């Protein structure tokens, strides 16, 4: 049936609601631990459980984190704020309501710039607001009962709400990738979707191309990875278009995505804002902050990745690709900055990070923050290559692995112990070159007739015969002289 459907005549409109769990030590309104894990119902207190007579108190660090992300997203920061009660019953919501921001989000507007096939595009944000998390219902612990763990209840969240400004699953994937890098970059959230510290709901609708009125939206929840968000969006787009084309009607509803089989299923009809009966939270006073407070947070922000990419391209001469990979995460960019502060060979340092270092991280299954080699050690190894004492091949294949095992050892000592220091003595290299040229008389004749690409063969053979110790630059010079 779907083979005859014209999917291209429809435009897809997508808005995202992303919840980012803040990396505070305690919860949003009490001192209970906000750490991930722990035995069920051990990070709780009467305040988390909403017992009568308990009063919440706002976590100042959570407010600072909200402002950090808002400034990074170019939002307008609201100085006058208050919380509201969002009323609904759910087993893992111990108070019977959630404390959130409704009409007064702390961050208004803003944007996130994403890469697309047609160049960069700014995705407009509606708001970023603070709220507390709910607990967690577990349906697989007991055959007869649903168990509830309240450890997560009250953990501070930021909800990042976009405008309906995305139009494909590829844009959704790019947005979440950029946003995850950003929340990690400004150090407000670890972005770990598998642990639930970053979660995404997608509101998806379709309309005929050229129309301006939005179609009926469907919210898809239960998305625990960026890849699964992309899969869920693609599946929902196909479902909606197929439904309309076969005479069906799209219902406003909330659906859950089953990552196992790639399909979604209906959970409930979608609530409207008035269903939640919002009203100002009576137990929390309104809060405000000064320009000085904002300026202090603004001054504490690191240089953001897009600005660093431009800096690396314009000032350091890196390619766009190299600059973006170095800025893929803050730990890599910080490490790059440390190394180039000791040896300002920016392209060489980038090559090492994108080559041997990245391969090591992949092999060990770790990220840059866990890379064991101090920046000083890598700088010393690169300096060996720059000084002509070893070539890159020997440095990366022989010295680098040894250095990883003993990071405190000087690379020069390793090269000396393994007899790897480069030979730049013409008297030693010249006889090896003679042997190579005598071994390939036909290739020498071809070279002299104009087949200059054979130079690489001769250099390679000399390096092999010298066990990688011949100075490549001197080898090329001597070969050129002997081949005249």
UniProtKB/TrEMBL annotation:
Q: What name has this protein been given in UniProt?
A: Aspartyl/glutamyl-tRNA(Asn/Gln) amidotransferase subunit B
Q: Which InterPro entries is this protein grouped with?
A: Asn/Gln-tRNA_amidoTrfase_suB/E, Asn/Gln-tRNA_Trfase_suB/E_cat, Asn/Gln_amidotransferase, Asn/Gln_tRNA_amidoTrase-B-like, GatB, GatB_C_1, GatB_Yqey_C_2, Gln-tRNA_amidoTrfase_suB_CS
Q: Which gene encodes it?
A: gatB
- Which family is annotated? Belongs to the GatB/GatE family. GatB subfamily.
Lineage, opening ranks: Bacteria, Pseudomonadati, Bacteroidota, Chitinophagia, Chitinophagales
User: Which organism is this protein's natural source?
Assistant: Chitinophaga sancti
> Which terms under GO biological process does the entry name?
glutaminyl-tRNAGln biosynthesis via transamidation; translation
UniProt domain Asn/Gln amidotransferase: residue ranges: 334-483
Quaternary structure, per UniProt, is: Heterotrimer of A, B and C subunits.
For molecular function, the Gene Ontology terms on record are: ATP binding; glutaminyl-tRNA synthase (glutamine-hydrolyzing) activity; transferase activity
EC number of the protein: 6.3.5.-
